TrEMBL record:
SUPFAM superfamilies, alphabetized: P-loop containing nucleoside triphosphate hydrolases
CDD domains: ABC_Carb_Solutes_like
Molecular function GO terms recorded: ATP binding
PROSITE patterns recorded: ABC_TRANSPORTER_1 (PS00211), ABC_TRANSPORTER_2 (PS50893)
Signal peptide: none
Organism listed in the record: Rhizobium viscosum (Arthrobacter viscosus)
Protein name: Iron(III) transport system ATP-binding protein
InterPro entries registered for this protein in UniProt: AAA+_ATPase (IPR003593), ABC_SmlMolc_Importer (IPR050093), ABC_transporter-like_ATP-bd (IPR003439), ABC_transporter-like_CS (IPR017871), ABC_transpr_FbpC (IPR015853), P-loop_NTPase (IPR027417), Transp-assoc_OB_typ2 (IPR013611)
Family, similarity comment: Belongs to the ABC transporter superfamily.
């Protein structure tokens, strides 16, 4: 079989990318390809390898195996040793800590990449002002970064990253130092800026709502592998594995078993559904919050006890446990406030349950075990 090759016409791509530190394998075979003008989010728990992957694309690390290409040019190849240094990859980078120089003005910070490229003073000034205008900070060119708020400082960092009109911009958790409200505002602003400027971007985050808001494609990573790479809507509709569903907090995961015509919650007499489901006698399912409704306890509903409840903006989100099944917590959204200890009735719309194909799940587990 031929080795996989980098698809032409991609703005950035990786094939069979591996990175080890001594015996520790951090990335275990990463493949992706991103079109020009699109944003890819790398999403996953701490330590799964997001920053390592970004650093390989940036040229701050060289791969142990596999290749990276930017605009159809191979910039790193573990097999041949080919390696283009970061400053020649045509990149802009934005980091979590802004990395602004405190002794330079805002304008001085933004124009620095142009100075490094030997751009003349008049053109430097014009391009710096244009970049600052794009992030809404042209009035701040003569200030010091320390006179600006965290959100403004991050905008300066973005202006500096775009001033040289890079073909690719890399973001490493750029909003994680901001407080929650500012972060929520900045996500929208950043999404608009990326789209207005037509940037191609890779965006590292461990925040699923940031990734799903900003990105055209999301790579959910786990233990050095991409577990699923898909547009946000597909991820939400069709998470490939229970782990992806769990990480994206799409609802409650439950183990169920077939007895006769019905699927029971594992180890109980409680019937979830009589739908055909999938082959086999055991399954793992995702029960999305949206498919559970709460009402008064009645014989045609599942009896449940409210464990706790929290107002969420559009209703009260309650964690409940089914009577006779204390180990499983379901989540239900209710207009009325539900009190801890209260007994309620639940209806579950089984047509919205997501069934996981055991063989797909197993193959990922096997891949993780064998690398
Ligand atoms: N220089 C190094 N030497 C050895 N191991 C390293 C080195 N740098 C990173 N690692 C390990 O590689 C793994 C992946 O790290 P990486 O920073 O890519 O994860 P991440 O997904 O970005 O995590 P976080 O969200 O916490 O930043 C971690 O287990 C980390 O400890």
């Amino acid at each position: 079989m031929n080795a996989p090759s980098i698809r032409s016409s991609s703005a950035v791509a990786a094939v069979g990318l591996e990175l080890s530190y001594g015996a520790a394998q951090i990335l275990k075979g990463i493949d992706f390809s991103l079109e020009k003008g699109k944003t890819l989010a790398l999403l996953g728990p701490s330590g799964c390898g997001k920053t390592t992957l970004l650093r390989l694309v940036a040229g701050l690390l060289a791969p142990t195996r596999g290749a990276v290409s930017i605009a159809d040019t191979v910039v790193a190849d573990g097999a041949t040793g080919a390696f283009v240094p970061p400053e020649r990859r045509g990149l802009g980078m934005v980091f979590q800590d802004y990395a602004l120089w405190p002794h330079l003005t805002v304008g001085g910070n933004v124009s620095f990449p142009l100075e490094m490229r030997g751009v003349g003073k008049a053109e430097r000034q014009a391009r710096t002002m244009r970049a600052l205008e794009r992030v809404g900070l042209s009035a701040y060119a003569d200030r010091r970064p320390s006179d600006l708020s965290g959100g403004q400082q991050q905008r300066v960092a973005i202006a500096r990253a775009i001033v040289a009109e890079p073909q690719l911009i890399l973001f490493d958790e750029p909003l994680s130092n901001l407080d929650r409200e500012l972060r929520e505002n900045m996500v929208g602003e950043l999404a608009e800026l990326i789209s207005t400027l037509g940037l191609t971007a890779i965006y590292v985050t461990h925040d699923h709502s940031e990734a799903l808001t900003l990105a055209d494609e999301v790579a959910v990573m786990r233990s050095g592998l991409i577990e699923q790479l898909a547009p946000p809507d597909d991820l939400i509709e069709r998470p490939a594995t229970p782990e992806v569903a769990d990480f994206l907090r799409l609802g409650c995961l439950a183990d169920i078993e077939r007895r006769g015509p019905a699927w029971h919650f594992k180890g109980s007499e409680i019937v979830l559904t009589e739908a055909a489901g999938i082959a086999g006698d055991g399954a793992r399912v995702l029960i999305p919050v949206a498919c559970i409704s709460a009402g008064e306890a009645s014989p045609d509903r599942l009896a449940a006890t409210v464990l706790r409840s929290q107002f969420r903006g559009d209703g009260h989100l309650a964690s409940v446990s089914l009577s006779g099944l204390p180990g499983l917590e379901l989540q239900v959204l209710s207009r009325a406030k539900l009190r801890a200890g209260e007994t309620i009735g639940l209806s579950i719309d089984a047509t919205q349950i997501r069934w996981f194909q055991q063989e797909i799940h197993q193959s990922i587990e096997e891949k993780l075990e064998h690398v």
